[in-house]
Write a structure and sequence with these properties.
heterodimer; A: mainly beta; 6-stranded antiparallel sheet; 5-stranded antiparallel sheet; B: mainly alpha; 9 helices; globular
Chain lengths: ~450, ~180
């Protein structure tokens, strides 16, 4: 290098400004999965062999025709990129100021109707509380609270029931049916509350490029945490059930074309799984924590990706033969459960091993503005809706017992998928034609629903 | 279990994050010299890193990740110049205006970019690789997929043009006033 060249080098180093933004691994990963051809570009532009460097002054002709034969087998589009151990921090949001929670209204029903317990666990030896019988309702449903919840999801944990609706997140005492704690919450989508330890996690917002989670004390429902999970791309506009937890207590969040694993204790992102198959609309994790199911749904199609969580590898990909929707996924030992369709045409399916090619219909669905999201509680899977109420084997998907959901003057009544708390089964029952005939109900399922088949 | 089609799994390669964190600023500055604006520079660097990702382990074994990334950057830049309409400069900031010309750094920066804009793409790439990225002639030749002789030729022609570039000739003889 002569003096003039050295001077040019100095000038370039002195005047070239520092970049305004760094490049991040997440940006690169997003580019890679959103533009799969970039991953193949490296093969098109392999470094020259060393012998070329001492060539005879003739520039090599540019390769035509894309991939070389040697690289062709490896040129399939990358569907998944796993960033293991990603250290991208999660921004902690300042606690938002909530309006004072509304008072818990509604008194427990006073009339007493005895119930017949089902045989075996989770059948109670004594009814938890007395309730009001519902004419024609399945499995001896008794209203134990007449609040007009707008609920699609009921979750049990440590002897309490959690649900949301009417602008609140509520903890319900199953012994009385009364709301024991409440806080303001407007759910952006249908997602059952996720309880990890002493914290109830919900999806606070799901729009644009972020998912925001809020955590609440499981007893008082006082807000204790807020986590911003950045999405890769935009979040799904048909999402349901995008927040789940694994047996290790980690949270998994569908965030655009990625699934983000979060340690809720440290508020740190542990891993990103990037998808090229589309935008994640629903998640589920197998009970052993080994498998992650990712639904990629649109209004008219539904694809399922099955991951081995330990290795972050994809094990299967399948597509529902007809119907779309978010998925509302629930995983059990035998496979995956979900819903498809919308309105009165919604129905519930079970896919053995998480293979949609083998999916079978197990429930009639809901409609009328309700969801028949399956619930896995007490060792069996429950499927409510506006047509039927069923329990099914978590291992085989076999329907163990079914009861018809009645109609009132032609209007469908609704029974949410039950959950078990303290040895009793609970559901939300809705009859829009009869005042005071909607609310939290206790069920007495038949013995076949005892969970022995799970 | 169904057979997967068109699917493969890629994990974040060992050392990739550290490389991105430590070298992206330098790569971006090279990208800025090649393209003349930050958005294009970021696009260039992201493209190169995404291309390097699938074969990162191999590149690390060869101890040549940065050489390879720079090679992708240069080749991508050359392809863009062939295919893209480059008359419009995307910028997240307003370009520096005459009012800022009182600052020597800005003067020098504009003079440098204007001078580089006078160069054909391959000459510009050689200048950036040789004199900014401090790569040897052999490394530059490998990155551009040409011979060392071609690199020398491109460099000589580029220096001749830069020598006559308004504003830059003074810098080459007198330096930059900070």
């Amino acid at each position: 290098m002569n003096n003039e060249e050295r001077r040019l080098a100095d000038v370039m180093h002195q005047v070239t400004p520092d970049p305004p933004h760094p490049v991040t691994v997440e940006q690169v990963a997003y580019r890679l999965v959103s533009e799969p051809k970039l991953g193949r570009q490296s093969r098109q532009s392999r470094p020259s062999r060393p012998s070329r460097e001492s060539g005879r002054g003739r520039e090599p002709r540019a390769r035509r025709g894309g991939l070389s034969r040697a690289w062709a087998p490896a040129a399939a589009a990358a569907a998944v990129v796993v960033i293991a151990g990603a250290s991208a921090g999660i921004a902690l949001l300042a606690s938002s100021h909530h309006n004072p929670p509304p008072s818990a209204g509604g008194a427990p029903a006073s009339s007493s109707v005895s119930s017949t317990p089902m045989s075996g666990s989770p059948a109670p030896s004594q009814p938890a509380t007395s309730g009001t019988g519902i004419a024609g309702a399945p499995w001896g449903a008794q209203l134990i609270d007449h609040q007009t919840f707008v609920n699609y999801a009921l979750v049990s944990s440590d002897g309490s029931l959690y649900t949301y609706g009417n602008g609140t997140l509520d903890r319900i005492d199953p012994a009385t049916g009364a709301v024991a704690a409440t806080t303001r919450y407007d759910p952006p989508l249908s997602n059952p509350p996720v309880i990890v330890g002493n914290t109830v996690w919900v999806v606070w917002s799901n729009s644009g490029g972020n998912v925001v989670l809020h955590g609440y004390d499981a007893q008082t429902l006082a807000q204790t945490a807020s986590i911003l999970v950045p999405a890769a791309g935009r979040v799904s506009n048909v999402a349901d059930g995008i927040l789940v937890s694994g047996p290790d207590g980690h949270l998994y969040v569908a965030a655009g074309v990625s699934v983000v694993e979060v340690n809720p204790a440290s508020r740190q992102i542990l891993r990103h799984l990037y998808l090229t198959a589309g935008t994640a609309s629903s998640l589920a994790i197998s009970p052993d924590g080994g498998t992650l199911y990712v639904g990629i749904g649109t209004s008219d199609s539904f694809k399922l990706l099955v991951y081995n969580l330990a290795g972050g590898t994809i094990e299967n990909e399948s597509t529902l033969s007809s119907g779309g929707g978010a998925g509302d996924l629930v995983a059990t030992s035998g496979g995956l459960w979900g819903t498809t369709g919308s309105g009165m045409s919604e129905w519930t399916w079970f896919a053995p091993g998480g293979n949609l090619a083998r999916a079978v219909r197990v429930g009639g669905g809901a409609g009328g503005g309700f969801d028949a999201v399956p619930s896995y509680s007490g060792g069996v899977v429950w499927i409510g809706g506006t047509q039927s109420l069923s329990c099914a084997s978590a291992a085989s998907g076999q329907v163990l017992a079914t009861a018809r959901v009645p109609a009132d003057h032609g209007d469908a009544e609704f029974v949410s998928s039950p959950v078990v708390a303290g040895g009793h089964a609970y559901t939300f029952f809705v009859n829009n034609n009869a005042t005071g005939q909607s609310g939290l109900a206790q069920l007495t399922p038949p013995g076949a629903c005892s969970g022995v088949s799970s | 279990m169904d057979t997967l089609t068109g699917v493969e799994h890629l994990a974040e390669p060992d050392g990739f994050r550290n490389f991105v964190q430590t070298r992206s600023a330098a790569l971006l500055r090279s990208g800025w010299l090649l393209t003349g604006d930050w958005p294009s520079a970021e696009d260039l660097v992201q493209t190169a890193l995404a291309a390097a990702w699938p074969r990162w382990a191999s590149l690390r074994r060869q101890d040549a990740p940065e050489l390879y990334v720079r090679k992708i950057m240069v080749n991508t830049f050359l392809r863009w110049r062939q295919r893209r309409w480059t008359g419009e400069i995307a910028t997240g900031r307003l370009p520096e205006t005459q009012a800022y010309d009182v600052f020597a750094q800005v003067d020098a920066r504009q003079a440098l970019l204007a001078a580089l804009d006078r160069l054909p793409p391959r000459q510009r790439a050689v200048v950036v690789l040789r004199y900014f990225a401090d790569q040897t002639e052999s490394q530059t030749a490998a990155a551009m997929g040409c011979s060392v002789g071609a690199v020398k030729s491109h460099a000589a022609k580029a220096m001749a043009r830069l020598r006559d570039a308004p504003g830059l000739s003074e810098l080459l003889s007198g330096g930059v006033t900070s």
